[in-house]
## 1
Amino acid sequence: MAQAKGLDLVEVFPNADPPVCRIMDYGKFKYEQQKRQQEAKKKQSVIQIKEVKFRPKTDEHDYQTKLKHMRRFLSDGDRCKAAVFFRGREIVHQDRGHSVLERVVNDVADIAKVEQPPMSEGRTLVMMLTPVKK
């Protein structure tokens, strides 16, 4: 029957009793399946993690520039990682790092929330922020 119609006989469920087959144009079926996958891939959004690095002695203008970048990342829908790096004997004053991160949280409170509170990882203090759904 499939040859008479110029189509293919495709086995759909080989483990069924009796096995189920379908008469179809297999090339067209594969093409439409590929198009559906491409369309689904196009509609999905990829969320990235962007990292902004601070220091305990980061000056005001540098801080504002980094904050502006962070706001842009969050408004684009990306998660943001704020990290404070300590060099040398700065590690003794971790309270300064915590104050920098608290300031970041207060400055981006309108567009982001804290996903992971500040955690110490070696010589860095790391915090994760996620954008707030509108």
## 2
Amino acid sequence: MNAARQARSVARLAAVQALYQMETAGAGVEAVIREFRDHRFESDLEGEPLARADEPFFAALARGVVGAQREIDAAISERLAAGWRLERLDATVRAILRCAAFELRFRRDVPPEVVINEYLEIAKSFFGGAEAGFVNGVLDSIARDDRLAG
């Protein structure tokens, strides 16, 4: 994977983590972006430097999801089984779905298949097959509907 693509992958994972943090800790988007910029992106893991993140892309994802959350949540909720509410999903799954739905809906610089695959890999890193399959189904549906509409 080339460095620019890897930096975007790291930014996507960081955006998911930031959304999770915002939801569970009640932190604002600008405070979380600042925290990641000041403390997390330059850190290492057990002495090994972490891969570089595309920090402007990370910030754009975090701000974009927050700014369009009502529309994003509606798009996700439409795809849940009858009787299920978005609030019943695991907070990490919600963060993954929100980031991916934002990219699928509002950013056209990456093909939908790439976006879905990136977030599917993130889901797999946190969960097993059932959650990843669920994430894949929701994102496929959003991407399919957006392609038909656009």
